[in-house]
Design goal:
By secondary structure, the chain is α/β, with parallel strands linked by helices. The chain has two domains: 1-58; 64-284, Rossmann fold, CATH 3.40.50. 45% of the residues lie in helices and 15% in strands. The protein has twelve helices and seven strands. It has a seven-stranded mixed sheet, with helices on both faces. Helix 11 (221-231) links the parallel strand 4 and strand 5. The longest helix has 25 residues, at 34-58. The protein is globular, with a radius of gyration of 22 Å. It binds S-adenosylmethionine.
Length: 287
């Protein structure tokens, strides 16, 4: 259970006795319920402290944290994907399970991580978090041209490439400004992926006929918005755009409103992690 999963803190019992009712209706009520208030807040804080300690000693990651989603959050994600992509719920659930069950992908990420010089700053076991939603969108929408800005290790890229391989068509263009990015992109995943080392704004302006766009690079509001305006002329009319940063800025809602797109947001809930989660912002083409 994460801090988000628990119901609201237990309430101070509403007094049964007439004495207690008198206390709760008097000016000393705040003092009387203080122990319950303290216990409720302390329970949340202790849970976060436990997750923090587990992470500090059990994980090697210093940025771009990875984790699983809580089971309920996975289910919410399936409903979200089904709605946005216009597919049956069972199909969306199936895609999410498909990537979680993909043993070849797991083995690939573990192998490349173990071989990488950056293995000391990566966790051994892959956990995809909200990227399972990206996977489901690619499986559902079967894009020919898929673009991800911000590659980092390449975890999102290989998840997306795995979806393209299952689709049997499409290519991924993943863009990162860091020449050391993308060490997970190799083997069959590299066959459908073009890694572009460049500032994303310059690279996006040169693309054509993009079916699915994912912003996950520089997360300043200005850069995120600049990416949307740079990619906009190069999107197909029915293209879907995703933002990995819609929980933190107003860039996608602003762009969606200005261009007549519909904005929807999936709120991510990590399991067993102190990080409160990000999300998937979606801007649907004008209907
Ligand atoms: C959050 S990470 C990407 C995570 C990745 N998409 C994944 O699924 O794990 C952000 C990446 O954006 C890259 N980045 C930062 N500024 C950029 C820019 N102006 N153009 C392209 N990439 C940039 C960073 O080098 C970093 O690797």
């Amino acid at each position: 259970m994460t801090t988000h999963d628990a119901p609201e803190g237990r309430r101070a019992p509403l007094a049964a006795s007439s004495f207690a009712r008198r206390v709760l209706g008097s000016p000393i009520a705040p003092l009387a319920v203080f122990p319950w208030r303290f216990a409720a807040a302390a329970r949340w804080s202790l849970r976060t402290f436990g997750a923090t300690t587990r992470w500090l000693f059990g994980s090697r990651e210093n940025t771009n944290y990875t984790y699983d989603l809580t089971p309920r959050n996975r289910e919410h994600l399936a409903w979200f994907v089904a709605h946005v992509a216009g597919i049956p719920l069972a199909e969306a659930r199936g895609y999410i399970q498909e990537v979680l069950d993909d043993q070849a992908l797991t083995a690939h990420v573990m192998g490349e991580t173990a071989r990488s010089r950056y293995r000391w700053l990566a966790d051994r076991v892959p956990r995809y978090g909200r990227r399972i939603g990206w996977y489901a969108f690619v499986r559902a929408l079967k894009p020919d041209v898929l673009v991800e800005t911000g590659t980092d290790k390449g975890l999102g890229s290989v998840v997306l490439a795995a979806a393209l391989l299952r689709n049997g068509k499409g290519r991924l263009i993943s863009i990162d400004i860091n020449p050391a990015a993308g060490y997970l992109i190799s083997g069959r995943y590299a066959e459908v992926t073009e890694l572009v080392i460049s500032d994303s704004i310059a690279a996006l302006a040169a693309l054509e006929d993009v079916d699915l766009f994912i912003h996950d690079s520089d997360h300043t509001a200005e850069h995120e918005y600049a990416e949307f305006t740079a990619i906009a002329p190069n999107l197909r009319p029915d293209a879907l755009s995703l933002s990995d940063n819609a929980h933190a800025t107003d860039s996608m809602t602003r762009w969606a409103e200005e261009t007549g797109r519909e904005f929807l947001f999936f709120d991510e809930r990590p399991a067993r992690h102190w990080y409160p989660g990000a999300g998937i912002g979606t801007a649907l083409p004008p209907r």
